[in-house]
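tool_call: predict_structure(chain=1)
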Amino acid sequence: MPQPPIRVAALYRFARFTDPAALRDPLDAVCRIHAVRGTLLLAAEGINGTIAGKPAAVDAVLAHVRTLPGCAALDVKFSGADTMPFHRLKVRVRREIVTMGEPAIDPETEAGTYVEPEDWNGLIADPGTIVIDTRNDYEVAIGSFAGAIDPGTRSFSDFPAWFREQRDALLGHGRQPKVAMFCTGGIRCEKSTAFLKREGVEEVFHLKGGILRYLEAVPVEDSLWQGECFVFDARVSVGHGLAPGTAQLCHACQRPLSAEDQASPLFEAWVSCAGCHGERTEAQRAAYRERHRQITLAAAQGHAHLGRNPSRGQAPDGVPES
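tool_result:
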């Protein structure tokens, strides 16, 4: 089977960068030389991002990233796309590469125990294991593991407060159960498992490589995954084998929409979905319709529409910063 022309690489590495700002411009230059797009975040704690381009171009950028301090063992998940899934390139310096707001934790040394995708089913099927989805509510809405707890967070920085509020209900007052946690590519679990260990939870596990690696490694007939996995690019979601999913993005509110969501009478492509219909005025919806008309007209004339988007945005462009 021919490989898709675009290679997508989701990557992260917790490392110690004494001057992340000094790493930004050389990294940006390498990406632009090779026409690679996506988002890369640099912080004192390491690097996080998703990029896409021709295979040789992505490989060249990854080779550069592996020369950064502590990044020789960079963790990368590959998938493919028929068209470029990102609109632009962003290389930015941040306080954290994924925002949790708990500066005392050290994911590089304190993260929980890795569980390979092939061993994950056995762990989460154990009645003595609590399974927690560490992603945000809009991600969980289109897919998760059967029986996983959804914290209902709007942002990853909400996770610590949620756990502290729910701790007794989750863990009880007797012998602590095992806690298994998962996220899209693994980075949020590095922090969330380190956080739980700081909170005194002893047996904490997380899915190595995240959902993306599980969907790639575990045959569909053996899978405990239900639905699709939200990704932060124009594909919106992927399924087993990392094949492009069926979800669409609501261009008014950025919520991912399943096939069932798209069947709602309140769904209008580029204008609204059931989740945001009541959050927008008719004037706003009219503005969304007009912008879509202008985009369609510009495409028919063979050029891009560069006007300001009156809605919250277009397809996601990179990685979760929170």
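agent: The longest strand covers residues 6-14. Proceeding to next step.
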